[in-house]
Structures are given as structure tokens and as C-alpha cells.
Write a structure and sequence with these properties.
Length: 500
């Protein structure tokens, strides 16, 4: 998953798939730990005692990812005594990293509370974040597309379906406080990301992402240890016990594994949030991937352990989420349709210097021949899949067709089109299948100014004998029109121009 402008970056859907793939083992392992599945005696471990192992595992994962990928180089720099070290220079990335640390800690705890299902915990957390999305977009003036609203509504409807299940409301005070902290962390994180990132500038977004991760790492390293040392009460004592018994704990391997898995899913999830589209598009994608991962985990645990970890109502909610994913796929579906249309379209462009004489005459002649062929096949209308254009190399925009060119076309009984001169553009080059110039000099001019035209542009006359008519009389224009007519007939015979 490269961040460089010169490398192909993963699509938001590939990111969602990666997020889903890591979330399934992450949430499943966390739930199994809380049920004592990794203990020889069947003993379980509380979420607060497990937390230090998970946080350390997350730190290990973050450090490994930054070093292996080299992403740490994209952070800000600080010189100390001649030594340059990575440094957090964006204050919003710093604050976002602190909020991210809260999210990391509370996410793990949410899946460890006894009596609360994975799906219900996921719905509470994901639903709260989902509801934030449109409000943050409105505050930061991001346009919300109709399909984002549709997906938002479907995802919210999925949550309401599950909330209608009275038995799902099994949540204690500690779990409630934990989820409130989780949502608070997201409330601030999403605003920092929206304000300071989510742009077209990939380097800027990558720098924010890396600095946010570094800030989260520092927070995860320091704050929990300080709380464990000075904190009082049952929960703080459990966190302290997690640190003091870390190396001797029989849960250390699965605990560290959970943290490493979280560091991986964090990478995918954060890149979804940093996508430059509106939050009401990005967040439902993330939420759907997360919720479906929760349902998948529950089903897999039920099959493996012979104990039901989900309800039919929760499965119905998951089906609604699939509909939301289809709604979010609308831009991609539209893109595929457009690609299919472009694949069947053909664009031919005739080029001369001024675009008032030879190239518009060639365009008109070619279109006239297309019309004749289609009529011969019983088709009255011109094909919408074929574009026949003309353009100039040094043209002044908006100049009408030369009067002699108009008369020459009338002489050949070719329909005269409304014409306004224009310059050849890079968009023309990209869309064109073939570009024909009136001379080899013109062809070279196009190649010199538009290297992308290589393989598309050529001379209309291989012998380079199309006469120059600028400043000539009507007779010369008629001769030129006849020459163009002959050359275009050759192209049609050779099937270099196809009208069907």
C-alpha cells in the first residue's frame, strides 16, 4: 500500500477488504480470550488486565509497519545535536493521534466485557460514529452525494433493526463508559482528519497519517503506564496487574497477537477515513466492513464452538448492510458503465493550423460519408458512439468556417455543419482513436507538444500532398475538398475509419 504519487494506491474497496480481513481474527481472538479459551484451566482474563498486552502488541505492529514500509520518512523532521529524527509537526495530527490512542484502547475493551455480544458492541460503536458522518461533512462544507445519504440511511436502519431486539441491551456501567470514550475519541479524530487532511494531496495526507500514528504510539506508551502507577480502583489495579504479570502471563501470545492485528486493521481503516471523499461516503464503508466482520466472526465462533454468538435479527441487519455496500458502490458502477461506453466509442480528429479550412472540411466530408453509410443500412440517426471532430494547432477560438470552404463543401453536396474554430487539447489526444494531420510538419508539431499522441497521430496523405488553401480562391478550396474526399474514402476502404 504505497503512498507515493508515482505508485498505484489501493482503492477504498481494497482498503475495506483489508480492514475486514484483519478485523475478523482481531475481534474473534479478543472474544475467545474473554471466555478463557486460551487458558489450560479455562480461566478468562479481564479486558483491563489484557489491555497492556494489546497496547504493547499494537506498538510492536506500528513500529514494524513504519520500519518495513519506510513510511516513517514521511513524518516531519527535528534536528537535535546534528541528528535528524522523525517528529510530529502537525498539531492536528498530534491531537488526532491522542484521540486514536483512546479509540485503540476502548475498542479492545469493548469486546472483552462478559455478556455483551461482539455484534452488539460493534453496533453501538459503529452506529455512533456513523451518525457523526453527515454532521461533520455539513460543518466542514463537504458535499454529500445522494448515494452516500442512501448508504447512511441503510446502515442506520441496520442498527435500528438490531436495537429493536430487547435482549441485545445487555450493557453494564463500565461498558457504557468505555463506549462513550470510544465515541468521544472518534468525534475529535474525524474532525482533525477532515480539517487537516482528506485532500487531493497524497503526500500531505500521508504525512498526517504517519504523524498521527507516531502520536498514538507515544500516547499508548506513556499514558496507560502512568495510570497504572498512580490510578486507584478495581480497573486501574487490573491494568497494573497486566503490566506486572506481563511476561509470566499465559495470555501474552494471544494478547500481543490482538495488538498486532489491530495495528494492521488500523492502517486500512485510517486510509479509508483519509480518502478525499465526504465522511458520509467513507465512514459507512468502514462501518459496513467492521459490522460484517463482527457478524462473520460470530458465525465462525458459533460453528467452531457449538455455541450461538449471534441472533437472526443481527443477521437481518447484516443483510441490510450488504444493500448499503451496493449503494456505496454506485460511483464504481457508474465508472464501469462509462468505461464500457468509452470502449465502444470511437473518436476521429482532423487537424490543421487554423481550423477554419481544411480540417473542418475533412470533418464535414467524413460525417457526410458516415450519414450515407448509416442510411444505406436503414439507420437514419448518426451513431452516438462515433465522434468526428476537427481542431487547430494555432487556432484562434471561435472563428467560423471560411466562406470558400463552405462553398467548396456545397459544391461537393456535403452538408455544411455549424463550426467554431478551437485549439487541439490534451483531452482530445486522450479521447482520440485516430488523429489525422494535413502535413508531416503538423504531425511532428502534435508529437512535440503532445507526446501522448504517439501511435495515434499520422498524416492524412502519406505523400504529403494536401494543398495549403489559406488565402487561396474558391477553385483551390474545391480542389482541396476533392482531395480530402478521396483520402477519406481510402481510410474507409482500409477500415481505418469505421462507422458501425
Amino acid at each position: 500500500m504505497e503512498f507515493s504519487k508515482n505508485k498505484k494506491k489501493l482503492s477504498i474497496w481494497a482498503l475495506a477488504l483489508g480492514y475486514f480481513a484483519f478485523y475478523v481474527p482481531y475481534s474473534g481472538t479478543t472474544k475467545l480470550l474473554s471466555k478463557g479459551m486460551f487458558s489450560k484451566s479455562g480461566a478468562s482474563i479481564s479486558g483491563f488486565e489484557l489491555l497492556p498486552m494489546v497496547l504493547i502488541g499494537t506498538l510492536i505492529g506500528f513500529i514494524a509497519i513504519l520500519l518495513i514500509t519506510g513510511w516513517w520518512k514521511q513524518a516531519g523532521k527535528l534536528k537535535i545535536g546534528g541528528i535528524t529524527i522523525p517528529f510530529v509537526t502537525n498539531k492536528y495530527a498530534l491531537f488526532s493521534g491522542i484521540a486514536t490512542a483512546v479509540i485503540i484502547a476502548t475498542t479492545t475493551l469493548a469486546y472483552s466485557f462478559t455478556g455483551m455480544s461482539i455484534v452488539f458492541a460493534a453496533l453501538l460503536m459503529r452506529g455512533g460514529v456513523l451518525i457523526m458522518a453527515p454532521f461533520i461533512d455539513v460543518v466542514y462544507r463537504r458535499k454529500i452525494q445522494w448515494y452516500s445519504w442512501l448508504a447512511f440511511g441503510l446502515t442506520l436502519f441496520s442498527l435500528l433493526i438490531v436495537f429493536s431486539e430487547k435482549t441485545a441491551f445487555n450493557i453494564g456501567l463500565a461498558a457504557g463508559i468505555n463506549i462513550a470514550a470510544y465515541l468521544t475519541g472518534y468525534f475529535f479524530r474525524l474532525q482533525f482528519i477532515t480539517y487537516s487532511a482528506k485532500s487531493e494531496d497524497e503526500e500531505k495526507d500521508s504525512k498526517f497519517f504517519v504523524e498521527e500514528m507516531m502520536s498514538a504510539m507515544l500516547t499508548l506508551l506513556i499514558i496507560p503506564i502512568v495510570l497504572a502507577i498512580i490510578g486507584q480502583g478495581e480497573f486501574m489495579l487490573s491494568i497494573r496487574a497486566g503490566y506486572t504479570s506481563l511476561l509470566s502471563s499465559e495470555f501474552i501470545i494471544p494478547g500481543l497477537s490482538i495488538g498486532i492485528l489491530y495495528s494492521c486493521l488500523y492502517i486500512f481503516g485510517s486510509r479509508i477515513y483519509l480518502n478525499n471523499r465526504e465522511n458520509t461516503f467513507c465512514i459507512p464503508i468502514n462501518r459496513c466492513a467492521s459490522l460484517l466482520a463482527g457478524v462473520t466472526t460470530s458465525v465462525l465462533l458459533s460453528i467452531a464452538l457449538g455455541e450461538t454468538f449471534y441472533t437472526n435479527t443481527q443477521l437481518i441487519g447484516a443483510i441490510v448492510l450488504i444493500a448499503a455496500i451496493f449503494a456505496l458502490s454506485t460511483p464504481r458502477i457508474i465508472e464501469l458503465i462509462q468505461q464500457n461506453i468509452r470502449a465502444t466509442q470511437r473518436t476521429y480528429i482532423f487537424v490543421c493550423p487554423g481550423n477554419t479550412g481544411r480540417s473542418p472540411m475533412a470533418q464535414a466530408i467524413c460525417m457526410d460519408k458516415m450519414t450515407d453509410q448509416l442510411r444505406a443500412k436503414g439507420k437514419i440517426k448518426r451513431s452516438k458512439n462515433i465522434n468526428i471532430l476537427s481542431a487547430g494547432l494555432t487556432a484562434e477560438n471561435g472563428v467560423p468556417l471560411n466562406s470558400n470552404a463552405r462553398s467548396a463543401l456545397n459544391h461537393l453536396e456535403v452538408e455544411v455543419l455549424e463550426h467554431s474554430s478551437r485549439m487541439l487539447s490534451i483531452d482530445d489526444i486522450k479521447s482520440a482513436d485516430k488523429i489525422w494531420c494535413m502535413s508531416s510538419e503538423h504531425t511532428q508539431f502534435v508529437l512535440d507538444n503532445f507526446p501522448e499522441a504517439q501511435g495515434k497521430v499520422t498524416n492524412l496523405d502519406a505523400n504529403d500532398q494536401i494543398p495549403t488553401v489559406h488565402g487561396s480562391d474558391l477553385l483551390d478550396y474545391i480542389k482541396c475538398a476533392k482531395k480530402l474526399d478521396e483520402l477519406i474514402d481510402v481510410l474507409i476502404r482500409k477500415k481505418e475509419i469505421k462507422f458501425s
